[in-house]
Amino acid sequence: MTKLIFMGTPDFSATVLKGLLADDRYEILAVTTQPDRAVGRKKEIKMTPVKEVALEHNIPVYQPEKLSGSTELENLMALGADGIVTAAFGQFLPPKLLNAVDFAVNVHASLLPKYRGGAPIHYAIINGELEAGVTIMEMVKEMDAGDMVAKASTPILDSDNVGTMFEKLAVIGRDLLLETLPGYISGDIKPEPQNHDEATFSPNISPEEERIDWNKSAREIFNQIRGMYPWPVAHTILDGNRFKIYEAQLVDGQGQAGQIIEKTKKTLVVAAESGAISLTSVQPAGKPRMAIADFLNGVGRNLEVGDRFGQ
């Protein structure tokens, strides 16, 4: 039985961890995840999904704010693990830890060498990619630059967003890992180097990137909205206040960028530089998220055709 340390944080990681736990070829000695954080308006402390899974299986959990130089690092190195599996952990692994095990692989949600970094699914959708995928790669000191063990891909549909793609890719990543890890450990699968000249990067989304530029095409804005849903959520400006747009649809229409070109009791259509989008789920400043019909029946009832977003 191969003894593993697992490192990960969100639901994506939890799906991979569950797959390893269900496979009797592996023993999870410990789990490392990000510290518990305060979330929501009430700032309630919440465990990471990976921690929840670990505790359900009575697995020791380590949560260093920074792994490098921590007492947790020394404890992990003393466990005698054969290898490390990471999936959306959110921290770099110190070289001394990588050198202390026989192997360390990462389940990364992109088709490397494209979209190295912390937000690969977001950028794949925002940039209008036709497919996304998962790469199993060896861990090295440089971010997401290790040799590739295996890849698998799936189409990105117009109905997809970050949430749906995370769910799809988590299952793909889990299955790909379980399929290829034995061959990698035995040496039957030989990793292939990445072409570093083709590398692109996907850093965490900045607040500036969340704001919609209505001078872009409707397709670009549509991709931005679903590439930031369910987090961090795209926004625009309405009456000087932030106005979040959770979901929208591509529709036909023309007008000045950011201008409302159609309003009914249940629809609100806004023009882009070319084409238009119909808003379906929004959040005005100081209000909860709501369907567009509820917005138009409430705080948005005074909006008129010709009014503009983004000013």
Automatic annotation (TrEMBL):
HAMAP family: Formyl_trans (MF_00182). It comes from the Bacteria. It is an enzyme of class 2 (transferase). The keyword Protein biosynthesis applies. Attaches a formyl group to the free amino group of methionyl-tRNA(fMet). The formyl group appears to play a dual role in the initiator identity of N-formylmethionyl-tRNA by promoting its recognition by IF2 and preventing the misappropriation of this tRNA by the elongation apparatus. The keyword Methyltransferase does not apply. (6S)-5,6,7,8-tetrahydrofolate binds at residues 110-113. It catalyses: L-methionyl-tRNA(fMet) + (6R)-10-formyltetrahydrofolate = N-formyl-L-methionyl-tRNA(fMet) + (6S)-5,6,7,8-tetrahydrofolate + H(+). InterPro entries: Fmt (IPR005794), Formyl_trans_C (IPR005793), Formyl_trans_C_sf (IPR037022), Formyl_transf_N (IPR002376), Formyl_transf_N_sf (IPR036477), Formyl_transferase-like_C_sf (IPR011034), GART_AS (IPR001555), Met-tRNA-FMT_C (IPR044135). It comes from Streptococcus loxodontisalivarius. Its EC number is 2.1.2.9. This is Methionyl-tRNA formyltransferase. Residues 4-180 form the Formyl transferase N-terminal domain. Keywords: Protein biosynthesis, Transferase. GO terms for molecular function: methionyl-tRNA formyltransferase activity.
